[in-house]
Specification:
Length: 56
């Protein structure tokens, strides 16, 4: 339970996740996962903006 309530700490690995995406150039939906980005050696920046329902 403590892992769920306290989030990640600096230096911890981010658990794998999958997100639904939309690719405007293709006009279609898809899916991306952190594991896919890592295996393709893509740089990835994750950020969290709490309590905001606006696009960044």
């Amino acid at each position: 339970m403590s892992e769920i309530c306290c989030g990640l700490q600096v230096g911890q690995d981010v658990p794998d996740f999958k997100l639904e995406t939309y690719e405007p150039s293709k006009g279609d939906f898809g899916e991306i996962s952190l594991e896919t980005l890592k295996s393709n050696k893509k740089w990835t920046i994750l950020f969290f903006y709490p309590a905001a329902f606006t696009f960044v």
